[in-house]
Amino acid sequence: RSPIILDSDPGLDDAVALQYLLGTGLWDLKAFTAVAGNVPLDHTYRNARALTRALRIDGDVPVYRGVGRTLSRISPDSGGFHGENGLGDEIIPDSTAPHQTESAVQAILRLSKEYEGELTLVATGPLTNVAAALIEDPDLARRLKKLVFMGGAVHTGNITPVAEFNVWADPEATDIVVTSGAPYTMVGLDATHAWRFTQGDLDTLVAAGPGQELTANLMRHYLKSYDVNAGQPDCPLHDPLAVGVAADESFVTAADGTIVVECASELTRGQTVFLPADEARTYAYSDAIKARTLQTGRVALGKGPRNFSAH
Ligand code: BDR
Ligand code: CA
Predict the structure, then answer these.
(1) Taking every annotated instance into account, which residue ranges of this chain make up the domain Inosine/uridine-preferring nucleoside hydrolase (predicted)?
(2) Residue 279: what pLDDT?
(3) What is the whole-number distance in angstroms between the Cα of residue 283 and the centre of ligand 2?
């Protein structure tokens, strides 16, 4: 099993991403790090601890408290999309494990040294913790085996017409990550919108009975939230898909290229512009933007050939 860190803002689909990660049996989860995002850090950190208890890993997988404000010093939230507490107002008892003295940033840096060249980092919330770690020690970028983040979009948006929530919440952090030289894969809305969870999937989960109640309750809330807030009868599997792609890219189609993040414009803040590797030099951008094409990553563009089913 390969060492991995899951950095997230639980978050209904973040919670399911954690369950899915453990369920694959592929990973040795070294740390579960919380960041502010869907709800403020006090909630995401508490939820992260509670989830480790609910999933019976609270003695084994340490939870670390991350950064509570984005690089532009705001405290993001998703406006109640994930319920007031971030878990659809599901009440899950807190973990009784002692609190870690290390911060999420310190833990990420330490583990990247202990597992240099082997460690996968999957981020399913705003990239604030990862960027803070890169600011403290830019060499983190070359110590990671892989960095997969759920965020961004090439052709769409969800929080604005052109921006996805995680990147919109902290565009400056995303910019640091995609220019760091880390071997990143961006799993954005173009791919996550293509893998949906339906009412039929929920029925299957409920019928599966004991052991599946937590996932079923979280996904019931998520389906309802997409229905009420977005008028969609089913919901994307955003965060679980990023975990899936960390192990197997064939859940998505992907291409090499550069992501440039819009950090300045009030109108398009958080937009991720994709410059495909083979076309970037033909665009009419300034030399400064073209110089960025030296930093390339993998970018998910849609549904892949392998079927993705997080449950
Ligand atoms: C992302 O935003 C959050 O609300 C979800 O947890 C996911 O990480 C989708 O845009
Ligand atoms: Ca998330």
Answers:
(1) 4-279
(2) 87
(3) 32
